[in-house]
Specification:
The structure is a homodimer of 392-residue chains.
Chain A lengths: L7 E4 L5 H12 L2 E6 L13 H6 L4 E5 L4 H13 L2 E4 L5 H4 L4 H7 L4 E6 L14 H8 L19 H24 L3 E6 H8 L1 H10 L16 E6 L2 E6 L3 H10 L14 H6 L1 H12 L4 H11 L3 E3 L3 H6 L1 H6 L2 E6 L3 E6 L4 E2 L17 H7 L4 H10 L2 E2 L4
Parallel strand pairs in A: 1-2, 1-4, 2-3, 4-5, 5-6
Antiparallel strand pairs in A: 3-13, 7-8, 8-9, 10-11
Helix pairs in contact in A: 1-7, 6-8, 7-8
Amino acid sequence: MSVFEKIKVLDMSHALAGPFAGMLLADFGAQVIKVEHPHGDHFRPLLGGAYHAAVNRNKRDISLDLKNPEAVGVVKKLMVESDVLIESFTPGAMDRLGLGYEAAREINPCLIYCSISGYGQTGPYHSLPGYDVVAQAMCGIMLCTGHADGPPVRIGASWIDMGAGMYTALAVLKALLERQDSGRGQRVDISLMDTALSWMSPLIARFSMSGELPVRAGSALAAFSPYQVFKAKDGYLFIGASTERFWLALCQMLGLEELTRDSRFATNQDRVDNREELTKLIEQALASRFRDEVVAGLRRAGIPGGPVLDVGQVLDDPHVQQRGVLHHLEHPDLGPLTQVKTPIAADGEMPLIKTPAPAVGQDTRQVLADLGYEDGEIERLLTSGAAAAPPS
Amino acid sequence: MSVFEKIKVLDMSHALAGPFAGMLLADFGAQVIKVEHPHGDHFRPLLGGAYHAAVNRNKRDISLDLKNPEAVGVVKKLMVESDVLIESFTPGAMDRLGLGYEAAREINPCLIYCSISGYGQTGPYHSLPGYDVVAQAMCGIMLCTGHADGPPVRIGASWIDMGAGMYTALAVLKALLERQDSGRGQRVDISLMDTALSWMSPLIARFSMSGELPVRAGSALAAFSPYQVFKAKDGYLFIGASTERFWLALCQMLGLEELTRDSRFATNQDRVDNREELTKLIEQALASRFRDEVVAGLRRAGIPGGPVLDVGQVLDDPHVQQRGVLHHLEHPDLGPLTQVKTPIAADGEMPLIKTPAPAVGQDTRQVLADLGYEDGEIERLLTSGAAAAPPS
């Protein structure tokens, strides 16, 4: 039994960040039990089930209605034998259920108790519910993303949620190592807002030094030119000629040698100042060329660049296919489904995907039996609505 | 001595992802030595030094010119006593220096050897250099970000780099736990592209199920309305009325009760279909109101929302200030500088920031002396250019 197979995780979280944290630990080999309301995690219906399926694999599932005191009793029994608990209720909700940290610590002083929230367990906004998009608004990234003359733009996926899940998993492994010395668990407090701020740290450091704010520049980096997305005959691609060598190689590749003698484009700063004209000239040269041809040329010449792919094209990319990061499985309810492995290749292997995301309460009976509940008690819990399970 | 204080990390990485990984470990208490070329990490000049300062604190610094075989010898000596090595050269470069994984494993079979690259150590693109913005283009996020009728948009900060650093730190802690059982180190292979794909996993799962591609919708979530950024009298704010209850509360708050009886806005789908008209009506109501007033109203009413802040305003936010996630220090070269703590609060404390990012080679002499080099040898290494240090 590997070190992770001995680790028991009680995943009481929902939506995206907490489940992703639990899934990372499950992928590493931990025994993760998802505790789910009989109505199901409210993210189950989103994207046709894709959200839930993407972040809950490799887990078992017990369904409990925590409004029922008997269900709370089941959670307390699970706490006794768990190493880790993850929850993402609005701060205060676990306390009101009698499952807050102080209660949990009395039950199991070795428990690593992780709470994920929008703003953290402290501070003026701590009791507000958290949303990835609100953290995007408040951390500064929305005002760094988009066009200088346009409105703020949302990152088109909930990456702060994913990051908060990663910080939680990191906190758990850190706490497991520290517990070996101390013998004690920890209270871990992760927030979407703190996560986003840590990713803004270079821009925050600059502002604190100079008062300078980032410039929104569409697909470009404001400091370099040409360094942005361009349109070719059949699609977009990114070209990043951030150095003199790349600029000269690009002009040669596109048959635009005359630009290297054009005073409007003599230095990077000139090219930044005349970005619009330069973009037009480069897009003229690209208008008759296929994107993949240009990308192949960039790669041969060592110029940073790549195609701008849609999600479907990503799955067709030969590198992505051969890298082994994708896993295709048959989900019992959703059908064929592509999963992305946890992208930590250790000695050549990424963690295995053994089971798809569970159905609500699919393991309720077994988990209760493992806890020592007799058949009669289990049926009573199911009948009273404290627990739920699919028809057996 | 805590468990992390015994962990020695050789951070041979540069730019953003690798240094961030090393910094996370340094923040946890590990002894991290940054190995830096005498000319300095090429990210040192960016953003006036802010990039480097944000991801290299709590480290010591030895400067070595790895083109010099004596410098390579120093690294091999450091490998003997290190637990972890992090490098982010283009795949193959460490091998050409005689410092690749096979060589390292012979020197120290317990070493956890982490490589970070654009595409990973395997697959058709493995030898291409990696850039955050290229991974953004190729993972699909650029085509999910921006406006439906506009070009792809870059996320205005290098978040994939940050994520790759976090996966590296997670891989290191995982490997440390596994090493306790196995007695052996690991070869860890992290890439920007895999990191980005893992964050795209919900959208990849959906595409694989249904062929559906994400819709670019500016600051909005396409599925809900009103759920986007709006303009108030003095700035932008996000309002996310994703449920009927939020919608009714919003109309009441803004004095727009007549909209709840307007057939164009009867259901969420109606409001999505008539987003443009609805946006106009809401912005009319907001035109005379101050942003912070509206945000306070949203919070009182329990409606998801928040201000769209710039990086400077973020630092003035009362919650951010009171949460304790910021650390103000005096950097010896850069002056006053705000750092973001590693956002893992454990038992109420985030990891301490003890020392600012080091100067190039500031600890060269001491690190060499600790390795057993005599004063004469150290001077010879400095004179030959194998090592570098500021004037003593």
